[in-house]
Amino acid sequence: MSSGNAHHSELGAFLKARRMELSPAQVGLPDSPGGRRRVKGLRREEVALLASISADYYTRLEQGRRQASEPVLDTLARVLRLDDSERAYLFELSGKDAARPRRRTTQKVQPQLRRLLDDLATTPAVVLGRRTDILAWNPMAAALFTDFARIPENKRNFVRLVFRDPAIRALYPDWDWVAQTSLAQLRMEAARDPQDPRLVELVGELSLQDPDFRRWWGAHRVAVQGTGTKVLNHPIVGELTLDWSFLTSTADPDQQLITLTAEPGTSSHDRLRILASWAAQTADQSAADH
């Protein structure tokens, strides 16, 4: 399958998933007599009616047999009540960035980010690349999450660890939300290059191994987030409420530095310092053992 066909197929699946989540009442249409409908959500004909396009035109869009213009995409985004992330995803799938060159070479962490990681003595930080691959981390990130060095490089992926690593999974009391958010960000990656063989392999692997991943991936949720808050139950220092943020590398926009910090004066801030001390002692002991 060509990249263009893959985008069109994904576009159709995304449109179908979104219309199935809307009821006629939500968009101002009368429901069927008796409230019974043979299909979940809106029918294709109803979406076409609301978008002022023919039912045949919309059907061919969902079937991957027709490209949509920007005005039609704008209208569909409004009709299907897409948020900003979903609208951006819709345009990605429609080939608006098709001229962007593919970059499938092995990523290496930028030296500037590596130095910054090393200087963050009390702040957990990791560098994520394409597909949420973990490119680098500092000792605090290893102390907070897991010893990433023990994981084979080709398996060192954040989404994979969230779904498949019991230690990572146990960290999050709200694991469902964390997993779905990370998966939604991964789907944005899929829009940029759906033919990326490593991405296809990752999605296939997790779809076979994890029913939650399989179900949520099929929901076609997308998200772009730059900041947020996570609660973690750490086995050494207990509960941590940490604010996370993304810093994108200007040298390689596909690399992002993620830092986790706690508000000064809070118990989480104090516990991060305890974790830093524990990580330093563990590193010293490891060095002595060797």
UniProtKB/TrEMBL annotation:
<dbReference type="InterPro" id="IPR010982">
    <property type="entry name" value="Lambda_DNA-bd_dom_sf"/>
</dbReference>
<dbReference type="InterPro" id="IPR001387">
    <property type="entry name" value="Cro/C1-type_HTH"/>
</dbReference>
<dbReference type="InterPro" id="IPR041413">
    <property type="entry name" value="MLTR_LBD"/>
</dbReference>
<dbReference type="Pfam" id="PF17765">
    <property type="entry name" value="MLTR_LBD"/>
</dbReference>
<feature type="domain" description="HTH cro/C1-type">
    <location>
        <begin position="37"/>
        <end position="87"/>
    </location>
</feature>
<protein>
    <submittedName>
        <fullName>Helix-turn-helix transcriptional regulator</fullName>
    </submittedName>
</protein>
<dbReference type="Pfam" id="PF13560">
    <property type="entry name" value="HTH_31"/>
</dbReference>
